[in-house]
Amino acid sequence: MNTGRRSSGCKKLTACASGGNAERVTFEGSYNVTPRLSPDGRNMAYVSRNNGRFQLTLMDIASKQSQILTDTAKDESPSFAPNGRTILYASEINGRGVLGTVSIDGRIKQKLSVQAADVREPSWGPQLK
Questions:
Q1: Cα 52 to Cα 17: distance, rounded to the nearest angstrom
Q2: What burial letters (b/e) apply to 62-93, b meaning 16+ CB within 10 Å?
Q3: What is the pLDDT of residues 95-120, one digit of tens each?
Q4: What are all long-range contacts of 3-7, with beta carbons under 8 Å and residues at least 24 apart?
């Protein structure tokens, strides 16, 4: 995946999941960054700027329909769970980096704070069998 950059910021996201030519997949908003495909390739999570807030957004690749999943203002670094149903991301609340999780339908949201750390760039670990 690629983030298209222009002088005023990131405008579009392109994806090439099948190995062919990349095609533009986002058309809304003026700033869309850090795209991540779901494990099944059906959804793409990314951070979009909405009214000055950087929020986690999910797009259905087939329909190109997108939905803002979070209500925080400084989200970054989305990472899909291995089963594709939950997204882990970093955010900032009261000046501290925190982890957040949200279900792909946006209904279940959790903040996971750590007392002695400032969290950035979360990622799911390897799946054990």
A1: 30
A2: eeeebeebbebebbbbbbbbeeeebbbbbbbe
A3: 888 899 999 999 999 988 767 677 77
A4: 3/32, 3/33, 3/34, 3/35
- For residue 5, the tally of other CB atoms under 10 A from its CB is 11
Q: How do the residues of the chain divide into helix, strand and coil, expressed in percent and rounded to 5?
A: 0, 50, 50
Angle at CA 67, nearest 5°, toward 12 and 25? 25
Structure tokens at 117: 């750390």
- Domains along the chain with CATH numbers: 2-112 (2.120.10.30)
pTM attached to this predicted model: 0.79
Between CA 60 and CA 110 the distance in angstroms is 22
